[in-house]
Amino acid sequence: MSDHPDVPVAPVEAFEPPYYVAVFTTVRTQEQSGYRETNARMEDLVKDIPGYLGMDHAQTPGGLGITVGYFRDADALTKWRDNAEHRAAQKRGRAEWYETYTLHVAKVERSHGFTRA
């Protein structure tokens, strides 16, 4: 999750379907040593995946985190899933940073957006 207060808040744009989303919902543990650095590295790393479209994040005051990654096709999502550094971060996340998580992957068939003028 980005902790950049100077970055404008806006959702990832609506893309022309079909495309894929990976919805990662988490509750983190108290132990967060190294999490921010690893998360920042993952945000930089995923940008190099051909077909990566963007990412949205949200965090509730109660601790529920939601990250939605957008990918042009299933191949792009598979490349991200199989990335060695990403795999290592997943393993560390299960060992240290997450109390619980869910991952939902879906094909988007409809998408639209709105921005106030």
From TrEMBL:
EC number(s) given by UniProt: 1.14.-.-
Record domain ABM: where: 19-92
Species of origin: Streptomyces edwardsiae
Top-level class of the enzyme under EC nomenclature: oxidoreductase
One Pfam match: ABM
Keyword Hydrolase listed: no
SUPFAM superfamilies noted in UniProt: Dimeric alpha+beta barrel
Record protein name field: Antibiotic biosynthesis monooxygenase
Gene Ontology terms, MF aspect: monooxygenase activity
Keywords, ordered alphabetically: Monooxygenase, Oxidoreductase
Lineage: Bacteria, Bacillati, Actinomycetota, Actinomycetes, Kitasatosporales
